[in-house]
C-alpha cells in the first residue's frame, strides 16, 4: 500500500490471467488483499467446474478408461448432464409436461402409424389434410418432375400405398360415424 512503511516481503497475484505478475505487500496488507481476492470471480458454475476438471490433469487432454484417444469424450462440463433424480433443480418439469401432453393426445391406430409417418402427418388427421399432403408429395416425387429417376418413382409408389391406407381408414371411419 502506498502509505504503508512496513517491508513488502509478500507477493500476491495481480489477476487470474496474469498469475506470474505480482503486487508486493507487507504481511498485514497481503492478508487483507488475499481475503478479498476471488480467483473464480465472474465465472459461471459450469466454467468453474470445467476449470477445476482441467486442472486435475494440468490442462492436458485426458479421457476415461476404455475410450479411444482418437475419440475422447466431451471434455467440458455440461450443466445439463447433472443427475437429478429427485428433480431438485426442476429441469425435468418441461419434459414431464411434454410427456403428459403427448399421453393426452390420441394415438394413431396401429395400421396407420407407418403410413402417416410416410406421408409426414400427425394423428389426428382429416381426409382433406391427407389429400393436400398427398398432392404435394406426388408432385415432388413424380418421375416426370424428376427426369425419370427410378428412386423417385419407387418413393411415389410407397406414398401411393400409404395414402390409400389412410384414405380407406378415414372414409370407413366416416361411414361408421354416419351410420
From TrEMBL:
<keyword id="KW-0346">Stress response</keyword>
<dbReference type="InterPro" id="IPR001623">
    <property type="entry name" value="DnaJ_domain"/>
</dbReference>
<dbReference type="InterPro" id="IPR036869">
    <property type="entry name" value="J_dom_sf"/>
</dbReference>
<dbReference type="Pfam" id="PF00226">
    <property type="entry name" value="DnaJ"/>
</dbReference>
<protein>
    <submittedName>
        <fullName>Heat shock protein DnaJ</fullName>
    </submittedName>
</protein>
<feature type="domain" description="J">
    <location>
        <begin position="114"/>
        <end position="179"/>
    </location>
</feature>
Amino acid at each position: 500500500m502506498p502509505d504503508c512503511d512496513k517491508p513488502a516481503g509478500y507477493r500476491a497475484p495481480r489477476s487470474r490471467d496474469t498469475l506470474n505478475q505480482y503486487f508486493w505487500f507487507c504481511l498485514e496488507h497481503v492478508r487483507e488483499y488475499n481475503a478479498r481476492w476471488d480467483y473464480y470471480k465472474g465465472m459461471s458454475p459450469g466454467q468453474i467446474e470445467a476449470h477445476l476438471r482441467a486442472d486435475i490433469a494440468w490442462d492436458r487432454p485426458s479421457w476415461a478408461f476404455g475410450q479411444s484417444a482418437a475419440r475422447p469424450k466431451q471434455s467440458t462440463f455440461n450443466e445439463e448432464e447433472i443427475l437429478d433424480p429427485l428433480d431438485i433443480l426442476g429441469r425435468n418439469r418441461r419434459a414431464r409436461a411434454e410427456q403428459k401432453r403427448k399421453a393426452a393426445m390420441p394415438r394413431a391406430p396401429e395400421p396407420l402409424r407407418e403410413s402417416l409417418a410416410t406421408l409426414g402427418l400427425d394423428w389426428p388427421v382429416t381426409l382433406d389434410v391427407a389429400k393436400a399432403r398427398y398432392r404435394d408429395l406426388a408432385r415432388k416425387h413424380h418421375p416426370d418432375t424428376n427426369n425419370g429417376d427410378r428412386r423417385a418413382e419407387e418413393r411415389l409408389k410407397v406414398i401411393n400405398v400409404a395414402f390409400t391406407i389412410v384414405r380407406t381408414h378415414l372414409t370407413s371411419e366416416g361411414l361408421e360415424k354416419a351410420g
